[in-house]
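Title: Request for sanity check on Alpha-L-glutamate ligase-related protein ATP-grasp domain-containing protein prediction

Description:
We are preparing a figure and want to confirm that the structure record we downloaded matches what your pipeline produces today. Could someone re-run it with the sequence below and paste the raw C-alpha cells into this thread? We only need the C-alpha cell string, no images.
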Amino acid sequence: MPQRAASLLLARLGDRTAHVLLADKMAAAARLTAAGAVFPVTPVVLSQGQGVDPDRLVPVAAASAGLFLKPRHGHGGAGAFGLRHDGGGWQIDARPVDATALAARLNRLLGADDLLVQEHLAPCTALADLATADRAPVLRLATARRPDEAPFLQSALLTVPVPDRHPRDFLHGGIQVPVDPASGRLAAGILLGAPRRPIPRLPWNNARLAGRILPGFEDAVAMALGAMTALPGLALVHWDLIPSTRGMVMLEGNTGGNWILATLPGAFGLETASLPPLLRAWLPT
C-alpha cells in the first residue's frame, strides 16, 4: 500500500474522537495517565501566539538535565528538538545556538501551535551504548485489535539514532531494529537507505544489536496495551516509548503512522498478525 494512502486509511478507521484525542499530545497524556501510562514531565506549556524570550526557560533548563520541546499537535517529530543551557549558552540537539536564533525558532513554532516543554529523557544504563549525543533509542510498539475484540501487540521496532544525522532523515537518520514480540529480543538492524545490509552491531562503537534482550520490554507492552484498552474504538495505534533512566516512558501514540515502519517487522517474520486483513475487517461493508 502506498505510504500516503496508508496514512489516510489508518487515520480514518474506527472512532474519530479517539483519533482526535491522540493528535493532541497534552489531552492524550492526561487521559492515558489515568490508564497507567507514564509520560514525560512537562513543567511548562508555551501558548500559541505568545512571544517568548529564551531567558524565561533558563530556570526550567537549570532544574533538569535538559529539555525536549515539541508541538502539542502533529507527529513524526516535526518541530521537535532537544534544548540545553549550560550556563554559557544554549544548545539545540547538542549544537550551540545563540539566543536570537533560538527565540526566532521558538516564535516561529508558536505561530502554529502550543509548545510542550518537557524533561529530557536519558536512556537507561543498559542501553546507553545505543544512544547518540542527546538522542535515546525509541521503541515503537504497534497494538491492534479486531472489531469488538481485546487489543494485542502486533509488532515492535527499536530505532537507534545515527551520529551526525538528523532524526527526520528517514533513510539514514536511524537504524531500524525489529524486536521479537514474544521475547523482546532484538534482530539485526537495517538502515532504510541500504536495506539489504543487515547490521548486527553498530558500526561506530560495535555495540551489539542482534540477540540482545530489550530491558523493560514487558513493561512497555503492558503500558501500550493498557493505553489501547482505554481507546476501544481504534484498530491500530503505534506507541513511541523511551527506555529511560526512570523506566519506560511513553512519548505519544499515532494512528496515522508510517506504513513502511508499520510493516517492517513483518518482513522479518516478527509480527503476530498481518496488518492488511486486520484493517480490512474495520472497513464498512
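Thanks, this matches our download. The chain has two domains: 3-39+123-280, 44-119.
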